[in-house]
Design goal:
mainly alpha; MetI-like_sf; single chain; MetI-like fold; cell membrane
Length: about 325
């Protein structure tokens, strides 16, 4: 009768791999900070001091004496500049016009950009290339150069607009379209939108290019119309892109300055056509009231944050 040999003990399981060593893990955790710190330093150096100077000046009485005599300290006036600005009817009118102009320009720009992006998706390769080159040329044109052309087009003495309307039988010879605030802002809207549509259209087109054609074809086979595919498939998928470009347009159109200043110099009524940008310029450079101009700048910054906060929260929720 054989006796079974005792079973040998099973070998101990090897300890699980721990991956990277603590030193390597520490290096990996520090790498993002090492990459982002230089950018933060540049941003703080480029934007921190101007914002600090504006905020400090908004609580001071700062005029030409302090501008040309650094040894003469400005007087601290607390919130007097803010009170003076916020109780000024002219500022309240400028604020209302700026907000209305900002939203009209931003929403019309995004709508036109979306339509152009859809057009680029549907046309052939050659037509798409021509359209993209035209958009890039319009977008790359310097504002001063484009405004020189626009001012020539609407000039009341020998502008192209009055010439063409006169050929159609309308009595517009010598009519100054910039003298009336309504037509002034219509022209300003056209110019601002014309310059901003290329960026929006190309950005939305990039978002449309990421949508799978199979999804759209499946919806079409299920009987969905073009409008239904756009509303229920395309728009939800590119909603993040739309939110970002709309946010950027709101910020940019709120602080528009160059286009309004050129049109005012070409024959517009300055006091009736001021927006926040030109109002700050005239209050600071024209009236040498740098304290009040700084206060308006701070209010404009807070207004920008308030108007864009909803979209910032939406973008953050989508990222989460």
């Amino acid at each position: 009768m054989s006796v079974d040999a005792p079973a040998s003990p099973a070998p101990e399981a090897a300890p699980p791999a721990t991956g990277a060593t603590p030193t390597r893990r520490r290096r990996r955790s520090l790498t993002p900070w090492l990459l982002i710190v230089p950018t933060l330093v540049i941003v703080i150096a480029a934007m921190g001091y101007p914002i600090f100077w504006q905020l400090k000046t908004s609580f001071q009485k700062y005029g030409l004496k302090q501008q040309f005599n650094p040894d003469l300290p400005p007087d601290f006036v607390g919130f007097d500049n803010y009170v003076k600005v916020l109780t000024n009817p002219d500022f309240l009118a400028v604020l209302g016009r700026s907000i209305l102009f900002c939203f009209l320009a931003a929403f019309i720009t995004v709508i036109l950009g979306f339509l152009l992006a859809l057009l680029m998706k549907r046309v052939g390769k050659v037509a798409r290339l021509i359209l993209q080159i035209a958009l890039l040329l319009a977008w790359a044109m310097p504002v001063a150069a484009s405004m020189t052309v626009w001012v020539w087009l609407v000039d009341w003495r020998n502008g192209v607009l009055n010439y063409l309307l006169g050929k159609l039988g309308l009595d517009v010879e010598g009519h100054n379209w910039l003298a009336d605030p309504t037509t002034f802002f219509v022209i300003a809207l056209i110019i601002v939108i014309w310059a901003a549509v290329p960026f929006v259209a190309l950005s939305i087109y990039a978002g449309l290019s990421q949508i799978s054609e199979e999804v759209l074809e499946a919806a079409q086979m299920d009987g969905a119309t073009g409008w239904q595919r756009t509303r229920h498939i395309v728009l939800p998928l590119i909603a993040p892109v739309l939110s970002i470009v709309l946010l950027l347009q709101i910020v940019w159109d709120l602080r528009v300055f160059t286009q309004i200043k050129f049109l005012q110099d070409a024959g517009g009524v300055a006091n009736a056509t001021d927006l926040l940008g030109t109002y700050i310029y005239k209050m600071g450079v024209g009236s040498a009231d740098f304290g009040s101009a700084a206060a308006v700048s701070v209010i404009m910054l807070l207004l920008t944050i308030a108007l864009s906060w909803y979209y910032v929260r939406s973008i953050m929720k989508e990222e989460d």
